[in-house]
Please model this.
Amino acid sequence: MSDQAALPPDPAVEKIFQGVKFSVERRRVLTRDGGTATREVVIHPGAVVVLPIRDDGRIVMIRNRRFAVGETLWELCAGTLEPDEDPAKTAARELVEETGYRASQIEALTTFYTSPGICDERMHAFVATGLSEVGQQLEATEQIEVELLTRSEVMALVRSGEIRDGKTIATLLYYEAFGTS
Amino acid sequence: MSDQAALPPDPAVEKIFQGVKFSVERRRVLTRDGGTATREVVIHPGAVVVLPIRDDGRIVMIRNRRFAVGETLWELCAGTLEPDEDPAKTAARELVEETGYRASQIEALTTFYTSPGICDERMHAFVATGLSEVGQQLEATEQIEVELLTRSEVMALVRSGEIRDGKTIATLLYYEAFGTS
Model:
């Protein structure tokens, strides 16, 4: 699917910042007329988002305190890849940590870039089933509450805009439209 | 919908970097046990994404060279808000610049955050109809080709993962599920 071979190589790269969750590089990019310009890119290790569906059909949603946007958001559970980690393993781990549920089955749904104009973050979406409760294991900075909603309740929250996290909207609607097939 | 009043105020903010398309701040965030930690946040002015539908029902998609991810992506046209700009005005402008189509009607669809774990970017999604061709006006660093696809062709590309831009997936599937009502 990639057409990287057809693209010019990225010329100069300058690391300008290293943070806890991401870094920033400055790159020299080519213009259409053969000149160059500089643009910054957020470098991110990639992440997973997990749609957990209980045996009774209810979806395990979270209310997640997000300091970056100053709101508590309705989301699906999610988390960042460790170096060289298989995304399915990240999904299983984050599901337990953020929701307190362990899954007997985790299926890949799709993948997408969250903000490819400025950031290389790739999101791997999964569906988790065969859930059993084992207890939440939050990190110190996380403030997350679990809520169980029916599929129609979730769709109503997407439609109304009350669910306003892009990865959560994309994952819920992808599953609604296509399932895991 | 916001519950900002119920959240503790963001304590210290340190601007650590100013780029062309975004900046980065370091914030001291509160932990659940009453301590503090520092986290970086990408500060973005917000953006629009536009689903343009021609009178013949075909959708105006773009193939967009994205240096941040090293790929040319299938996307809906999109762009960044100017300071204090009405998102509907941004949508009308970016539609012309990136696709060469002017719209007689632009309707708000929904809004969402693209990556709220690290970035405050809010995306405003619109549907554009009553299209007439006026000619593309690309910026020097943009490499964008327009492609006209039927609704079923677009849905097939979402399902297969060939469309892998999150805002494009969320916007297309939101419109497919709910329309503009």
